[in-house]
Protein: phosphoribosylglycinamide formyltransferase 1
Amino acid sequence: MKRWASFVTGGGTTFAAILDAVISKELNEIQFAFLFASQHGIGAIDKAQKRINEHGTELGVSRHDIHVMEMGHHSGSPSQWDRVVSLCRDYKVDVVTLNGFLPQVDWRVIEAVDGNIFNQHPGPLDPGRQHDFGGGGYLGMYGRRVHCARLYFVRMTNCESWSEATMHVVTPEVDKGFIVHSERVEILPYDTVDDLQQRVLPVEHKTQIDGLRRFARAELKTQPKRERPLVESWQVPHLIDGKKVARILYPKG
Structure:
């Protein structure tokens, strides 16, 4: 049984889906340890409290296992990360998933869980190459921005019409770790950003649950580098424009 913690910043739909799989025994190799939220008043906390109220005894957790610190979207203070490291060690966590978690994770947290920390991303990534649909900092590629950028890119370049739900290793550089699990999602001709988001989200849930199951069974492996670049050199301007458009249209992600 592997002990799991989820880090969240938003609504927590993926966290809730994973926890529901633990509760239902669909994911019976995983034990829930704690939830860490980087801000107060978010949906993920409400979802955690509801499930703990109903299933806390069988899970072996209580509301005291929900930990919240106001970190902002892009960073945290050294003392805050010290506390997160202590949480991971005190709870003897084996694996952490970032489920809509926006702050850039301090390297000490990665070290505290022996590198067993994985991020969910709602679009295709290309580790080992410069250009893809990830990126933190000022680029802020998360949520609907990723879907918007992907749709723009596909339609401007006439490339294959698909997107991808991704689970990848967390490294000090945002969205650059090796992919460990992914599933493609078809893009339909008249898809809007919201259409694509709704189609990708359940696949994100499945990808995370399957990835955790594989981790618990010691079956999780890094995927090989893509044979061809996800973004060819002539397509780079369209990628950059797509990300710019996404940030303008979706200022809150």
Q: What stands out?
A: The first strand starts at residue 2 and ends at 8.
